[in-house]
Write a structure and sequence with these properties.
Low-confidence stretches: none
Radius of gyration: 23 Å
Structural class: mainly alpha
Number of helices: 2
Shape: elongated
Length: 54
């Protein structure tokens, strides 16, 4: 028996919540582009900092 007024069970909360769930849905191409951009920018900033501290 629960003595609290507000239950936090996922099913009960989902039934009471009228707002849609907020999430991001990436396609495979978008995820690959983000990964490639991060990889290239890391190389760029690594090159710049290596040049600056020589």
């Amino acid at each position: 028996m629960r003595y609290t007024a507000r239950r936090t069970y996922p099913v009960t909360y989902r039934k009471k919540n009228t707002e849609p769930e907020k999430f991001m849905d990436f396609s495979l191409a978008t995820a690959a582009t983000v990964l490639a951009f991060t990889f290239v920018s890391g190389f760029f900033w690594g090159f710049i900092t290596k040049k600056a501290y020589r």
